[in-house]
Amino acid sequence: MRIALCGGTGDIGEGLALRWAYDTDHEVLIGSRDPEKARTKAQEYETELDSRGVDRTVKGFANEMAADRADVVVLAVPPYYVRDTVEGFAGRLDRDTVLVSPAVGMQRDDAGLHYHPPSEGSVTAVAAAAAPDEVAVVGAFHNLSAGRLANLDVELDQDTLLVGDDEDAVDIVRMLAAEIEGLRPLYAGPVANAAEIESLTPLLINLAKYNDELHDAGVQFG
Ligand SMILES: NC(=O)c1ccc[n+]([C@@H]2O[C@H](COP(=O)([O-])OP(=O)(O)OC[C@H]3O[C@@H](n4cnc5c(N)ncnc54)[C@H](OP(=O)(O)O)[C@@H]3O)[C@@H](O)[C@H]2O)c1
Description:
The protein is an alpha/beta fold. It has one domain: Rossmann fold. It has helices at about 10-25, 35-50, 65-70, 80-90, 125-130, 145-150, 165-180, 195-200, 200-210, and strands spanning about 1-5, 25-30, 60, 70-75, 100, 105-110, 115, 135-140, 160-165, 185. NADP nicotinamide-adenine-dinucleotide phosphate binds near residues 32 and 85.
């Protein structure tokens, strides 16, 4: 499978790219608004993998080109740019492409971060509204720490909650998540339930702010 990470030059994109390249044989494409930046970052990720004895090719492209080539496209960009990012390549997507939204709307004040959903109810719903009707959107990876993902020395031992309306698309993302060692995907219902998942992220960041030992915290259910 070919996975494109649009905004894969950033934190969560880096973490997911490294884990998929390290733990699986899937092809990983890095997307950016600037293809040169994507190529530079892709090379950095290859160097990191190589230093661990893993010989993988990671390629960099403009977001549109990465999305055009991929089976699964992760929208690893800040929440306010999810709509524009999807609209930027919507016309190039095959009908069986799966879009994945990890983005969370948050606002910061002195106390910490607060959940700030868009008027659609969640960023996952924004992505679904921006995507062509036939393209499925799955919300996933919202509650993972990018730092923990990107540090391949650390065992993840975490859950990730999935939401989506299309069973086949959810199954694909569930499989990709489960292939990351130490990550357990759990289905939490349709896109209408995305806000409950997204809203956990500011809580996790606030816990990290007030508790040193919870730096890079995630969730585990059971
Ligand atoms: N960081 C985490 O631990 C974490 C965990 C879970 C979920 N998330 C969510 O994942 C999303 C990305 O988080 P992040 O921490 O990876 O963010 P980030 O590092 O700040 O940004 C990711 C990438 O977004 C792209 N970008 C920036 N401005 C943009 C714009 N105006 N239009 C399109 N793309 C733009 C940039 O790529 P280019 O400049 O290369 O285009 C950047 O490298 C957020 O919505 C966040 O809520 C983050």
